[in-house]
Q: What sequence folds into this?
């Protein structure tokens, strides 16, 4: 259940409106928990060569899509019925934005599962799996922390998530160079290394989506849009 730190939602005269906002937040967090599990399981399927788990992940993609559509519909109904203003409108708009990021995280989990099956069919190669473990652990922490920041309306934690994005980009570039070396050493590695490269790219994108969620948390709490702004500006907004 969402808690409050920097701001307070759910203190309206209408208890029904309070319940609607709380339900919207809760459904968003439920979807967030599902896509967290999807990413974690996709990486596990890849590393452990678990084709059955990979197929299960692919089959759940439609559930993620359905949840996105349901939350979007619920948010639009709140806007139509309640005509929220100020902070409540920021909450609803932010959920609409963030649920799209969660759906794309689900898409990345599906891609990773697809490459897990492909690598299993080709004969697994451990090359690049250390990098996969490292980057997946990093972006999973970012995703979890961004959802936690939303639940607690914690703009400071959201800012910390944003600052991690640069590190993930650096880790991805270093991993790509390592895989390129493997491919140059033995051309027989090219196909498998390219599959791992695409997995790393998907994980890097998960970090981007976690960062997007964090940016929207700051917008919810502080009322300023920090997308496409320098980190120094985001720090100023959070610190004021």
A:
């Amino acid at each position: 259940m969402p808690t409050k730190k920097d701001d307070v939602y759910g203190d309206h005269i209408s208890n029904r409106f309070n319940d609607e906002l709380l339900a919207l937040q809760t459904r968003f967090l439920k979807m967030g928990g599902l896509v967290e599990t999807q990413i974690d399981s996709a990486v596990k399927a890849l590393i452990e060569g678990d084709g059955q788990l990979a197929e299960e992940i692919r089959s759940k993609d439609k559930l993620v899509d359905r949840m996105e559509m349901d939350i979007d519909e619920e948010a639009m109904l709140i806007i139509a019925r309640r005509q929220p203003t100020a902070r409540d409108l920021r909450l609803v708009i932010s959920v609409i934005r963030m649920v799209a990021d969660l759906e794309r995280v689900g898409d990345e989990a599906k891609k990773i599962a697809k490459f897990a099956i492909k690598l299993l069919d080709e004969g697994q190669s451990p090359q690049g799996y250390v990098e996969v473990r490292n980057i997946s652990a990093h972006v999973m922490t970012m995703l979890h922390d961004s959802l936690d920041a939303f639940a607690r309306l914690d703009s400071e934690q959201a800012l910390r998530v944003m600052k991690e994005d640069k590190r993930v980009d650096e880790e991805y570039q270093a991993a790509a160079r390592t895989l390129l070396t493997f491919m140059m050493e033995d051309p027989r590695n090219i196909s498998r290394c390219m599959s791992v490269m695409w997995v790393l790219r998907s994980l890097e994108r998960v970090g981007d989506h976690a960062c997007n969620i964090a940016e929207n948390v700051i917008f919810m709490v502080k009322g300023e849009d920090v997308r496409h702004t320098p980190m120094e500006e985001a720090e100023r907004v959070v610190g004021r």
Notes: The chain has a mean pLDDT of 92.
